[in-house]
Specification:
Elements: H1 2-15, H2 24-33, H3 37-48, E1 51-52, E2 62-64, E3 67-75, E4 83-84, H4 91-99, E5 103-109, E6 115-122, H5 128-138, E7 149-150, E8 161-165, H6 167-172, H7 177-186
Parallel strand pairs: 3-5
Antiparallel strand pairs: 1-2, 2-3, 4-7, 5-6, 6-8
Helix pairs in contact: 1-2, 1-3
């Protein structure tokens, strides 16, 4: 129960909603300075009303009607629809990623820990797996440290849906012009 209450506070802060004054400074401090990708993924899962996954770090991040969901988060530098794909450095892992037929969710955050956008599409309808494959095959030594990166351009012709957008935080955050145009088209 206590974990759910904490997640509610983080989620409310991320969305810009009012939270209890007693926890505000702590929540803000964590989301501005220490929020891991895992915490942000849990917040995104909460915002979307998806089921939190109990799987390990190498499994799905959430479930949407029992369908696995892969969640990636980027923080403004500027926001450009970027995702880092850690631990995806072998053909076997790529094949498993493809076969799992996951929903792909990408969320953008301000440097102050506020949620700007959430988009979603079918991962297999994108060029992401191809991009990752190209990256790992061009890399001479395959190690666990390989972290292929993708951007909004790998979303290709996928049917991308804008699930959440906070105009206030979008106005306060640097977003690349090409990606902002795509966000407007997804809406």
């Amino acid at each position: 129960m206590m974990i759910q209450d904490c997640l509610k506070g983080y989620t409310a802060y991320a969305k810009g909603e009012t939270i209890d004054d007693a926890i505000y400074p702590y929540v803000r401090h964590v989301l501005e300075n220490f929020a891991s990708g895992e915490l942000k993924e849990k917040i995104v899962t909460s915002v979307l009303g998806y089921e939190q996954s109990n799987d390990s770090i190498h499994g799905e991040d959430a479930l949407n009607n029992n369908r696995p969901v892969e969640i990636k988060c980027e923080t403004a530098t500027p926001l450009c629809g970027a995702a880092a794909w850690t631990s995806t450095n072998t053909d076997i892992k790529l094949q498993k990623l493809f076969e799992s037929d996951q929903e792909f969710v990408l969320a953008g955050w301000t440097k102050k820990g506020r949620l700007v956008y959430i988009i979603s599409c079918n991962l297999n309808d994108t060029d992401i797996i191809v991009k990752i494959s190209d990256k790992i095959h061009k890399h001479r030594v395959r190690t666990s440290n390989l972290t292929p990166k993708t951007t909004h351009t790998q979303l290709g012709d996928a049917d991308v849906k804008l699930l959440y957008f906070n105009q206030k935080y979008a106005d306060e955050t640097e977003i690349s012009k090409p990606f902002l145009e795509k966000l407007r088209n997804y809406g």
